[in-house]
Amino acid sequence: MSEMVIAVSEAGGLGSLPCALLSADQLRSELGMIRRRTSRPININFFCHRPPEVDLKRELLWRERLASYYVELGLDSKAPVPSSSRTAFDSAMCDLVVEFKPEVVSFHFGLPDKKLVSRVKAAGAKILSSATTVDEARWLENEGCDAIIAQGCEAGGHRGMFLTQDLSTQVGTIALVPQVVDAVTVPVIAAGGIADARGIVAAFALGASAVQLGTAYLFCAEAKVGSLHRSALRNANDRRTVLTNVFTGRPARAIINRVVREVGPMSDLAPEFPLAAGALAPLRTNSEAVGSDDFVPMWSGQAARMGRELPAGELTRRLAADVLKKLKALSLS
Ligand SMILES: Cc1cc2nc3c(=O)[nH]c(=O)nc-3n(C[C@H](O)[C@H](O)[C@H](O)COP(=O)(O)O)c2cc1C
Fold this sequence. Notes:
This protein is α/β, with parallel strands linked by helices. The chain has helices at residues 2-10, 24-37, 56-72, 91-100, 114-122, 134-142, 173-183, 197-205, 215-218, 227-234, 258-263, 276-289, 312-332, and strands at 15-18, 42-47, 104-108, 126-131, 147-151, 157-158, 188-191, 210-212, 241-244, 252-255. Helix 4 packs parallel to helix 5. 45% of the residues are buried. It binds flavin mononucleotide.
């Protein structure tokens, strides 16, 4: 993952390292590699959900819901499943922030407890977090965020929502960004459905100070995307994604595949985040091995069709150059 961060930061963007699936040892090694290869600013990103209590009854219902797939794949539906490796930001991770001093630390699902936030600030990092509503943006500003990522519902991956669970009222980027800009005094970063210079310039027009792109970078060779996911992205169009909780227990935007269609897109049976991923793991491993994407979480935003297969550094430079051209053209017209 460090390759992507290095390429983007070297090209003048802010390369971001997702840490939710990393152990402290893996994070140390990634940060060591990044710091050896670039002296540019970097962002490291953490989930900060409250670790869930295992609800055995719900686990059982989830296993029962998935049992027919276990039978189909010749697996024992009663065998123990791995626990999800998505971890929340904790003091061990914070120690690494203090040691490596990334310029920016971002969070998803709110913020960690105040002591950890203070330690991150004391290490000199600017703090960002995602807001999916104006209330969340105000809350993050009050808690000391240096900038707010306004994540519209077009965005790929997990919704950063943390004060609401109501998916039906989640806001699109074009409506969310200006309302967040009006509500807070810190800079706002627009995210969701932005994949080229047109989207970036539009975000600036809405009052954003910067943009965050996820899906557009999945097309780069540096992205750690499996071949099934990559080919689904290549075939994606504007109507191929949906918000679903079946993969982890929290709503996230992914390409529609069999498990999403048949079990979701939203399931009341999915255990709390990130536990739902446990019982899906053997299904994914075994079906992927025979070339099926039936159980693979293929995160993607709504603008996947606009993806370009370029190296991450080149994509970053091209986006910046295209934005300048577009701004110039607009100022002349
Ligand atoms: C494959 C994928 C993984 C993501 N993982 C994270 C993550 O670990 N942490 C996070 O804060 N946001 C994550 N996001 C969300 C992005 O930070 C960003 O909000 C989103 O990609 C912007 O919308 P776009 O996908 O339309 O560009 C992820 C997005 C994608 C597509």
